[in-house]
Amino acid sequence: xxxxxxxxxxxxxxxxxxxxxxxxxxxxxxxxxxxxxxxxxxxxxxxxxxxxxxxxxxxxxxxxxxxxxxxxxxxxxxxxxxxxxxxxxxxxxxxxxxxxxxxxxxxxxxxxxxxxxxxxxxxxxxxxxxxxxxxx
Length: 136
Description:
Blueprint: E1 11-15, H1 17-27, H2 37-42, H3 52-67, E2 73-80, E3 93-104, E4 109-118, E5 121-122, E6 124-132
Antiparallel strand pairs: 1-3, 2-6, 3-4, 4-5, 4-6
């Protein structure tokens, strides 16, 4: 049974430049800050950055891995507070994801608070999901 305070199994995802290319193709977001180092640094970024929605999708994966059902999402939102910088090397960028059940509601749903970190710092703010819990 799920209870407030329960922690979701953590998830670590390593993003590489190839992941950004694949995501750009799937999302049709070809903004050069996600692949062109020269342009990314010219606009003030430290380097190429991951798509914000890709980062948010990874945080959603944390919850779907826990529930086993992507269709259980009722509501999901987050703010982008810091970019995930993806170097052009074999290590890539490590995104660390954790979650905690904030509350279980009488209607069979639960609110999950999600933390997404890169380089020890939060990259998403106010990341929360409301999900339908499995019956039984």
